[in-house]
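so i finally got all the pieces together for this one. its two components total, 257 residues if u count the protein bits. some of the lines might not be protein, just check the labels. i wanna see the whole assembly predicted at once instead of chain by chain like last time, that was a mess tbh
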Amino acid sequence: MNAYVNPANAVTASRLLTLPPVLYCIQHGQYQWATLGMLLCGVLDLFDGAVARLFKCSSGFGELFDAFTDAVCYGFFLFVLVWYGWVPWPPVLVILLFGGANSVMRAIYAKRAGRATNYRSFAMERLVGFSAYLTGVGANRFEVDFFYYGCAGLMVVVVIHDAKRMLIDPVPA
Amino acid sequence: MIRAPEPLFAAEQPFPPGYFEWFVTALVIIPALSWVVVDIVRLRRALAGKELPAHDRRDRIFGSMIGLLVASMGITGSVLYHLR
């Protein structure tokens, strides 16, 4: 099957369609609909891997596209929540900066590996899932300071740990 | 760049707020509990998995510990929210 146009990548790409409705809902104070839109985005994130295995269309590009879409979707939601003053900006700035640095390091890692491949970080997978939480807790004013400042601290630790693995350690075959 | 916040939740919401808060709590707690189980299992396997490459083993141990920390934050935050 085509490594670029396949059902799994279609599921991943469909997550980007949740961005405009969530923005609209936040603009109009519809926090419950915004939460459900973010939840839909997160659920689709769970399904794309399963679809890839079901249709046997897993690929290095698909993994990279999934990571890219994670960054775009959750980064957008966090930015909008800050823009409308629903969540504090310092931890979001830390999360977005270190998330961006993580994406750059992944690109460097793929270049070092000489192929379209995604560095598997179990810790970052948890944090990406946690950042989905951040969007939901932000939309619902659910212990915002606790979750946001806590996640920012964890993001710093994990990105520094992964930096050594992606930039310095040898690339496994 | 940062706009003055509009009155939060000024619009009428489709679901009763009390129910929706517990729905959000469940969305936080249930995955957190599942992560606790998954990460404890992964941590135990990584600690016992002498045949794994050293870097893979360290990554799994670190990832499991971060996962457990994240899960405990989710549970703690949910408890704090409902205690306030």
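Chain A touches chain B through 41 residues (CB under 8 Å).
Chain A has a mean pLDDT of 88.
anyway lmk what u think
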